[in-house]
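Table 4 source record.
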Amino acid sequence: MQMLNSINNIILAPHFNLSEFACPCCRRVMLHPKLLGKLVELRNVLERPVYITSGYRCPGYNQKIGGVPNSYHCIGLAADIKVGDINLIELLEICENIDFSGIGFYEKKNFLHLDVRPTKRSRWRE
């Protein structure tokens, strides 16, 4: 079991490890460099930890949790995040300034969906 725990234990950038973006069911990872770059920028602006609550999702896991079939999580372009000790509206404004292509505001569950979709910008609330 020790070996499985070390899978994807690779530092990608200061404050981010590949394993944070891995699918919970199969440990596979797909992560677009542009998404990582914007998350690093966010972390630098905030000067506090950014927690990845959902990164890559394989199609089976995405379906299991009720994700949309064409989710950007399934192609490594999206991450859901939480940040402690910051108002979600303030976090949303900071993410707007960093210019994520897609931003979903999930107030009840206290997280933001962030993505770098290649299509037009999109904003939504839960």
